[in-house]
Amino acid sequence: MLGRCAARALGALRGLREGAPPARSPGPSRRLLSSEKVSEKDHSLPKPCWSKDMRLLFDQFMKKCEDGSWIHLPSYEDIATQRSQDFSTFIHAYFPTASEQINKEKLSQGRIFTRSFEDGLGFEYVMFYNDAEKRIVCVFQGGPHLQGMPGFFHGGAIATMIDATVGMNAIVSGGIVMTANLNINFKRPIPLCSIVLINSQLDKIEGRKLLVSCNVQSVDEKILYTEATSLFIKLNPEKEFHIKELVLNSAPPA
Ligand SMILES: CCCCCCCC(=O)SCCNC(=O)CCNC(=O)[C@H](O)C(C)(C)COP(=O)(O)OP(=O)(O)OC[C@H]1O[C@@H](n2cnc3c(N)ncnc32)[C@H](O)[C@@H]1OP(=O)(O)O
């Protein structure tokens, strides 16, 4: 019951922006008009490049979202909202020296790394969050441009998706965080273009430290490909609500 309430509260956060899509119903993927920025596309909704299995898993998880125990997390190329300006300002103030070295002219070209490939060639994924269990499951379909050894995913690409998943778990659970440590055991190579599940779990919060673990498994859960543990450090203990809102409702203004 508590979980359901929390899920509703999280869902309600999404509705803060006028015109935000309903929390638990993705609806059809919105077609881009020529005047719209590319960044307005929610990449966590089904696309033609998704395989049948990926769509099937998406549908299964969306079904789990119906009672509010799971929440579908939207995902954009950029979080170009007024709130993300506040977020950037906060981050730059936290790292003033590093911030001075940022090429400000290039900032407008900034894109979230995992959303910077053409559809189907790089990272295709959708995440679902369970607030009661502090878990995120990421359904990941990697494309042919993520190759390392011939026929298998590059370890860095796997590490990227792990960081994105455990990072999202830490952010939604704890506020504004950064990865301080990521330990990965690659146990089996992952065949290129296959679909895997990344299961992450918030294990512990100790003051500003969040410990999140995860594993990467085949869809039938018979193969354990990778295991990882991570440490995230909370930058701002006071601003949890702000970042949660930003993550769950990260579309640019309509
Ligand atoms: C949107 C989708 C999600 C995407 C997620 C992607 C997230 C990322 O990739 S972030 C990018 C990669 N990470 C970075 O660049 C971070 C670089 N590191 C840093 O900036 C800093 O070290 C930072 C912010 C992590 C911590 O610095 P700071 O805030 O000054 O904390 P600091 O006081 O040093 O440490 C706080 C506590 O954590 C501990 N700690 C910090 N780092 C570590 C570490 N690597 N291992 C163990 N303990 C650590 C400290 O010992 C301290 O413990 P205690 O309170 O018990 O004394």
UniProtKB/TrEMBL annotation:
Enzyme class name: hydrolase
Subcellular location(s) per record: Cell projection, Ruffle membrane; Cytoplasm; Mitochondrion inner membrane; Mitochondrion intermembrane space
EC number(s) stated in the UniProt entry for this protein: 3.1.2.2
Signal peptide start-end: none
GO biological process: apoptotic process; fatty acid metabolic process
Annotated source species: Myotis myotis (Greater mouse-eared bat)
KW Signal (keyword) present: no
Family: Belongs to the THEM4/THEM5 thioesterase family.
Catalysed reactions listed for this entry: tetradecanoyl-CoA + H2O = tetradecanoate + CoA + H(+); hexadecanoyl-CoA + H2O = hexadecanoate + CoA + H(+); (9Z)-octadecenoyl-CoA + H2O = (9Z)-octadecenoate + CoA + H(+); decanoyl-CoA + H2O = decanoate + CoA + H(+)
Compositionally biased residues, Low complexity: 17-32
Pfam annotation, one family: 4HBT
Gene3D superfamilies assigned: Hotdog Thioesterase
Molecular function (Gene Ontology), one example: hydrolase activity
UniProt superkingdom: Eukaryota
Bilayer disposition of the protein: Peripheral membrane protein
Protein name as catalogued: Acyl-coenzyme A thioesterase THEM4
UniProt KW keywords: Apoptosis, Cell membrane, Cell projection, Cytoplasm, Fatty acid metabolism, Hydrolase, Lipid metabolism, Membrane, Mitochondrion, Mitochondrion inner membrane, Transit peptide
Region span, Disordered: 17-46
Segments forming domain Thioesterase: 151-221
Cellular component GO terms, alphabetical: mitochondrial inner membrane; mitochondrial intermembrane space; ruffle membrane
InterPro entries the record matches: HotDog_dom_sf (IPR029069), THEM4/THEM5_acyl-CoA_thioest (IPR052365), Thioestr_dom (IPR006683)
Feature: compositional bias, Basic and acidic residues: 33-46
